[in-house]
Fold this protein.
Amino acid sequence: MTDALHATPLADQAEYAQAVRVAVDAAAAYYGAGDSALDDDAYDRLVRGIEAYEAAHPDHVLPGSPTGKVAGGAVTGDVPHTVPMLSLDNVFSADELAGWAAGLERRLGRPVEMWSVEPKLDGLAVSARYHAGRLTQLVTRGDGVAGEDVSHAIGTVEGLPETLTEPVTVEIRGEVLMTAAQFEDACAKRTAHDGTTFANPRSAAAGTLRAKDRPYRCETTFFGYGALPLPPDDGGEPAARLRELPHSRIMELVAGLGVRTTGATPVGVIAVSTVEQVQARVEEIAAVRAELPFGIDGIVVKADLAADQEQAGFSSRAPRWAIAYKLPAVEKITKLVGVEWNIGRTGIIAPRAVLEPVLLDGSVVTYATLHNPADITRRGLMIGDHVTVYKAGDVIPRVEAPVVHLRTGAERPIEFPDVCPRCGAEIDVSQQRWRCVRGRACRAVASVSYAVGRDQLDIEGLGETRIVQMVEAGLVADFADLFTLTREQILGLDRMGETSTDNLLAAIERAKEKPLNKVFCALGVRGTGRSMSRRIARHFGSMDAIRAADAEALQAVDGIGPEKAAALVEELAELGPLIDRLVAAGVTMTEPGATGPRPAGPGAAGSDAEAGQGAGAGAGDGSVVELPLTGMAVVVTGAMSGPLEALSRTEMNELIERAGGRASSSVSARTSLLVAGEKAGSKRDKAATLGVRIATPEEFAAMVASFI
């Protein structure tokens, strides 16, 4: 089942021998401390390349080859397993999955009656042995025949109780991992202790499970994925019937004993009856991967019935009745070759990692986010480090941590700037995110260009070249200065005649009539954009109400939490003089159709929602009118037609929010409705897979007719 797209090509016997050495060393590091010079994807490709070479040259196979061995043959242990604790074979595509399923059914001589589908958790496989309901031993997978005794960790792993709800004697197998929150906490504790950090959640979980004498404690989580009966012990009731039950039913019984299982994950364990349904379920899990609170690197597909499993049997390293459908890697290891210090349009100084190019989740990544100087220090990054890189939310590449054991001594510290890299002014380092003390003035051209853009004030005739002229001439320092420009000042600019000057002045005058959401968006407040600006404007109704709001009041707006609310209060205060000048120039400071939040209490006419801010709008007689898209996340794709044909994507998003919904750009399990026009493409396919409701532009127009 080797696929050239997922295999490292090996040209000759020397390359093959070197590949075997690299793979065995990587497996030893991965299954040992959880660290490896190769990421999962690179290791998988290397092993598949070794398999392909061995298939073509059977006389060259080395005895130390990782193929056909659990954990690549690199790990051993002291505690024998009652039943071998095997790995899983992999597939990488729908065609490979269908081919594997067809092969299993040929082996059985009949169709598989039921399949189970569950997430493949990215943790450390362990076996938990219970006697008469009490957890007595915890063992790692090791080489599949024997593992390492880590019973000292009993009582420290969430989801793995010391005592079951019934006094049964049973062995429960599963994964110990760290959730995203647990990983962040573990990194903070390790940094506070010795100034280093963990490379990734898996290595953190592996190290934590084995640690005996750490002065700090890190939390981990267990999810069970299988159970076996153990011989009766001290009168404990055997769990022999487990051998006869479907896998999905076993997971229910294990959960009933008080153990956390894969069924307790957000995607659960689902039993389906056809391979087509299996593939649909695989796509559903893949679609919500970025939203899960822990890492997964694939989906596990199993023949659900015990009779099918027994007849299919095992190979030397894997069950023939189960397969891992591997997902594209969202984490890779590459080298940090430099750091660039970029200045945003609000004056924020943003470090950006320069990386050796690496293929990550289908695209070549050369740059990655580094957050801020404090984050660089916390992670202990150095120029020349091998680093783990991942895609946050499957979109933005970010550097996670250095792979410390790969350091050679040639690495060097990252130098932080002493002054603003753009203008040489002082740097405000009072907050985690450093900022040029000149703020927006440091990037005046970028700041003004953003403000006059189509989705903000939409001032025609004011391109970047003209803005550069104005800034260099001292006419404009921020976009409020545009509203005080005189005809004579503009005529004095190079290549500005009377007609073009009059047209520009007319466009600036029209910009004063833009609604509050456009003006607020033009301010470029950190943490807001077009959609958030619309929600804020509709919620408060006026700039005065926004400026008067404290952090608690701002949190009433969908999508604003405590941290963002506090930052908004601080920045709005900072922008006060600019806003005052806009008011003085006659720029609109209200949102049409928004009445602002209503007061609470016995005399209040209703809630914020009743005032037109969410669930409904006041009808003028004290009644509440439900908005047609209340509580719905709506995505628009393809070319609109009918009554919506002339609307831009921004205007469509505004329409959605006027009708009570929330506009989104990507389809996920949380999407309520997809408006699919002509040439809708992959978003329509994904919505269909997830069971998301799909409407034509004409159907959607009928739903929101009164808001068009």
Observations:
- Residues 13-31 form the longest helix (19 residues).
- The longest strand covers residues 331-343.
